[in-house]
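Issue 218. Parser rejects a valid record. Input:
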Amino acid sequence: MTGRPDLAPVEAAEVADLIAAAVTSCPGVAGLTQIPGIPVATHLPGRTVSGVAVRAGEVEICVAARYGPPLPQIAAQIRHAVAPLVPGRVVYVVIGDIALPEAEKEPASRPQPAR
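Output the parser choked on:
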């Protein structure tokens, strides 16, 4: 499940969801992400919280950072936002991607070419 023997699945889900919300509210974060071959996720019954791994004694978070701010500053924002949710646990931050301003403005679906 989560790799955390001290949390029940419901508690792990609540913590993972709270962490995801706190991280995505950071101004330097474009979103949660994954790195191919390095899964960062909390696996729960019926769903997965991608980009947040809640483990025994630690939390790992993988984000796409917004282009511009220094990456250590973004990591500090994330740690500051998450620390109250996971007291006494180490928070690892992985910057898995950089979101360019143009990429964030693109529409979710691209227009189909005219026939």
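Fixed in the parser; the record now loads. The radius of gyration is 16 Å.
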